[in-house]
Automatic annotation (TrEMBL):
Originating organism: Putridiphycobacter roseus
Catalytic residues in the record: 133, 195, 565
InterPro entries for this protein: Peptidase_S8/S53_dom, Peptidase_S8/S53_dom_sf, Peptidase_S8_Ser-AS, Peptidase_S8_subtilisin-like, Peptidase_S8_subtilisin-rel, Secre_tail
PANTHER family: PEPTIDASE S8 (PTHR43806), SERINE PROTEASE APRX (PTHR43806:SF65)
Entry keyword Ribosomal protein: no
Protein name: Peptidase S8
Domain (Peptidase S8/S53) ranges: 124-304, 467-615
Amino acid sequence: MMRLLLFLFYFSTLSIIGQEQYKGSISFQKQFEKAPELKSNFAVKGDLNTLKRMETVHYKYTSGPWHYIYCTSAALANLLGQGGVSQVYFPPSIPKVLNDSMRLYQNVDSIFNGNAPLQEAYTGKGVIVGYVDTGIDFEHEDFKNPDGSTRVIAYWDQALPFNAARTPIKYGYGQVWSEADINNGNCTSTDNAAHGSTVSGAGSGNGLALNKNRGVAPASDLVIIETSFSLPNWTLTVADAIDFVFHLADSLNKPAVINTSVGDYLGSHDGSDPASVIIDSLLHEKPGRIVVAAAGNSGNWDHYHVRGDVTADTTFTWLEVNPSSAFGVPAVFMDVWADSVDFKNVKFGFGANDPNNNFITKGKSNFYDIQSLLNTTTLDSIMIGGAKATPIEFSCEEINGLYHIEIYFEDPDSLSLLYSFLTVGSGTYDLWSGFSIGLSKIRETNLPTAVTYPAIQHYQYPDSLISTVSSWACSEQVITVANYANQLDYIDQNGNTRTLNHTPGKLSINSSKGPNRIGEIKPDISATGDGTLSSCPQYLIDALIANGSTSLQAGKKHVLNGGTSMASPVIAGIAALYLEKCNNATNIDFKNDLISEAHADNFTESTPNFAYGYGKIDAFKLLNKSNFSPALVGDTLICEDLSTVNTAANNYSTYMWSNGSTKSFAESNKDDTLSALVTNSRGCRAYSDTLIVVKGTVPMYPEINNIGGGLVATPAVQHQWYFNNVIIPTGTEQYYNPVVTGYYYVKVTGPKGCYLLSDSVEIDIEKIKELEKNQFIIFPNPFIDNLQIIKKDFYTIEITIVDAIGRKVYEFNEFDETKLFASLDLAYLTSGIYLMKLKYNNSYKVYKIVKE
C-alpha cells in the first residue's frame, strides 16, 4: 500500500507538472512507473543551487542550459513537483551492448576503421597477447578463427603434474599444450573459473560468437597461462609465465603484450621483489615487450595499510584477531616493509590491550633491533601478569635494500584483545594486513579518547592509500590499470533491460588506490572495467541458463564481469594495437605515450592522482602520436641515367618500395609511380607521399648555326637562349637574333622535359653578315619534316605552298612583324617538289622546295 501511495503521489505530481510548459516525457514517466528507486543519469533544466543542495541527487556538471545529474526517478519526480526542475531530458531508447561501449570509451573503433590521420587500420594482427589468469574456454567462438581453428597458439597449465612430453624444461612444472593439440582435441585444460575467459575476451575476443562484443585486439594471437594460486611462492610462477610468453614470441619474431589480472595484496609494493626484478629485466632485455597489470579491487575494503611515522614516543597500531583467518585458526598477521635506511634507528615490539576495560595494557613483548635479527625467525610471547600468554612468531629479512618483517600471532589466548605493533626511535615503515584478505582488521574506529587513553595521540591510523596489488604491479616498468564504470545497462538472456548501479565514467568504489610504497604514481592509467560483458565459458553459460541469471547477456554467449581485472585487458589490447603499428617500441615508449595522451574529465578531476593515475586514454589519439610523414625527393624525369628516389630523412630502419626494392632508395628507368612503406627505430610504420617518375626522350644534341645574321638551333620542343651564362627572357625560339657581342648557347628540351645544352659560340656583332633587304634564307632544302625561314626585316609575311599541280597544301599567316624566324612543320606532306610563295610588302617571292 505504501508503494502505491508513493506512486500515486508522484504520478499526481507529474500530472500537475504536465499542465505546465515543461514536463517529464512519457519515457520518463514509464521509467518512473517501472523502477522509481533505480538510479539513472538525467539531463535537466532547473535551479543549480537546488540540485547541488539535494542529498538525493548526485550533481555531475553543467553544459549550456543543461545540468547533468544521477539520481532515482522518484527523487527527480519530487524535484519536478517542487519546481526545482523545470524540464527533464529522457528520450526513448533501445540499449545496445556491450564491449562496444568499452571500445567507445577508449575510442578503439576509430583504430579498427583506420580513420585519418591513421594511414591504415590496426587490430592487433601479428602481436601476441599473453593472459596469465585462470585459463580460457578455447571452444568459445570469440577465440576461434573464421575457419574454426583456434587462435590460442600455446596454453601452459601450471597446475598440471610433470609430464616428460609437455612440461617445459626451463621451468619444470605444469604442461604446455600446442595450437595443434587444441585443434586436434587433445588439450584437457580449460577455464573452470570464468575469470580468464572474460578477461581474454575483453582484450582479444574477436566477437565471432554473436558478431559483437569484440575486444580491443581482435586479431591478436593468444598465449594462455593457467596460473595456480596454490603453488608456493606464487609471484615467481607469474614471472615464469611472463618469461615463457616473451621467449615464445621471440621464437616467432613477434612483439608481445602480457596481461596480468591477478595479484597479491601483500608485499613491498615498490616493484623491488624478486618476481618484479625478473619481469623488469625481461622488459629491459629487448623492445617489443609490454606488461600490463590490474591495480586490484580493494578500494571498498576496510583500510588495511598503515604508514607508520616512528618518534621518540612509542607509536602503535592495534589489530583485531581474525577468528576465521586464512591460516585456518584464529590469528593476527602483519606484513611490514621499510627502506633499511628508514628503519635502522627503530626498535619494535608487540603488545595487547583490552578494549573492554578502558584499553588498559595487558602485556608487552621485548623490543627488538632488526639489524641483529636479519634472516632469522624469532619466537616470543606477550607477557601478561608475568606469564607467557600469547605466542608471537616473527621473521626479519633484508630484500634488495628493504627490511621485511612478517609477524604472526597464532591462536591467541583471548580473541577479544587488541594486539599492537609498537615502535620507538626515528624512521618510517609500511604495514599491511586486512580482514578482507583473511588477515587482521586494523582498528580504525571505536578508539579511546585522549582523555581516557592519552597514548592514543601516538596511534598510527590505517589509510586508503598503497592498496594496489603488490609486486610487478608496483613496478615503474609495468602499466597498472584502475577501473571506472563502463555501460549503464544491457539486455539480459530473459530479454529484460538490466540497469547497473553505477555511473559510467566514474571510478569504481572497488578500484585500488596508489601510490606505490616509494611514492611513484600508481595506477598509471584508468580504463573501463565494471559493467563489461565478455566471453563466457560454456560450463557457466549452462549454469546461468539453468537459473535464469540476469548476468548472462541476450544471445547467451557473454556474461557480465567487472573490476580492474576487466580494465587491465583493455589497456593490454591497446598496447597490442600500439605494437602492431610500432613493433620495435619499448615498454617505456608505450608508457610515455600513454601518459602524454591521457586526459582528465569531470570524474578524474586533476591528474595525476592515486585513483585514476594519469587519467583516461583515447586509444586513437595514442596511436596517432607515433605518426610521421616520410617525404620523397629525387629525380622525377628519366633522361639518360636511372632516376634515383630517396626519402628526405634517410634514417629509417627498413624500406619497402612500391617497385619491390628494400634499399634506402629506389631506382627506375621507365614511367613509374613510386612510394615507400618505411619503419623508424621504434618499428612504427608510415607510408610516404607519391612521386611520379616520367621517362623522357633526350633531344638531338643542339648545334648553333650563324645564318643570315641570326643564330639558329637544331629543332626541339622548347628552346632557351643564354648570353654570357645569363638567361635571355625573350630567347625562347629556335632562332635568336643577337644584338650584343658575347657568348651564346642554347638549351633544347624534349617532349617530356629532357634537355641538353649546346656548346657556347662567340658572336661579334661587328662581323655578322646581315641579309640583304628582302632577302630570305630557307633551309634545309631538301627537308624531311621541318622547313625554316629567316627574314631580314620585321614585317609580315604570308606563306603559301602548292604542289606540282597547283593545289594549295599549306598556308601560314602568322609570320608577322614581331618575328624574324619561322619553322614550318611539313611532316604531313608527301615526298615531292613544291612551290612556296612568300608575300610581303605588296611583293612576293617564289621558291622551289623539296620534301624528301
